[in-house]
Automatic annotation (TrEMBL):
Residues annotated as transmembrane: 5-25, 55-81, 93-115, 145-168, 201-227, 247-269
InterPro entries xref list: MetI-like (IPR000515), MetI-like_sf (IPR035906)
Membrane-related topology note: Multi-pass membrane protein
Subcellular location: Cell membrane
Protein name as it appears in the record: Carbohydrate ABC transporter membrane protein 1, CUT1 family
ABC transmembrane type-1 domain ranges (all copies): 56-268
Family of this protein: Belongs to the binding-protein-dependent transport system permease family.
Keyword terms: Cell membrane, Membrane, Transmembrane, Transmembrane helix, Transport
Amino acid sequence: MLPALIFVILVTQIPFAITIVISFMKWNAAYPDDISFGTLQNYITVFTDADLLRAVFVTVGLTVSVVLVSAVLGLAIALLLDRKFIGRGFVRTLMITPFLIVPVAAALLFKHAIFNPSYGLVNGLLTTVFGENAPQPDLMSTYPLLGIGIVLVWQWTPFMMLIMLAGLQSRPMDVYEAALVDGAGPGQTFRFITLPHLRRYIELAALLGTIYIVQNFDTVFTMTSGGLGTANLPYVIYQEFFVAQDYGVASAVGVIVVIASLVIATFALRTASTLLKEENS
């Protein structure tokens, strides 16, 4: 294990330690002669700058909404796919496909082929159904965050569905048979048996989804380039580091994102360990 441990430390922990050090430095590439260490100004800037605070709210709002919608849709699809029907394996494979597509490719697909106001699929369908006088909304100009959220929901719903489908297939069927014998209906079995059994799986799916979605950069960069109030924290890190070249502020934002992700990951690991204990018992 020692070589693997050394490799992990070299590629993860040392860069993170360096990032922490830089986050306490006043370091802007535009002023190479004005570099100092031992300042909290970068963190003060993160929590007081209006643009950075807006990015925090965008990140939280986008993450929460995408996780909630993806979890609900994933649960609904998992319940449908848990039933036996002809071609169930093929349908499951199709449902997983969005999760396997490269995020940049998915963002480009939605931006140009679906949401485009001139030749996009959405406006084309509206014209087909309602005629030439149909409304032609420009989603990426009027509601850009909604457009980004739709793409993320489309990509992450299969992930939620996979975890919840695994939970459904691990249900103790003897409990359901006993409930049916006692006269319980579908709604009662879902509320009092299925949902309690799936609680840990839903928590795990939501926590893992939050870890990944809070770090999303590809979709925001590809669809809006952070414009129209869609800049989230990962995009702010890119902008501060590569555009403004303020390495101190960029590192401070990065440290905050990593700490938040570690907190969420801790809850995810605890949930996963609880699941494993339940399965073994």
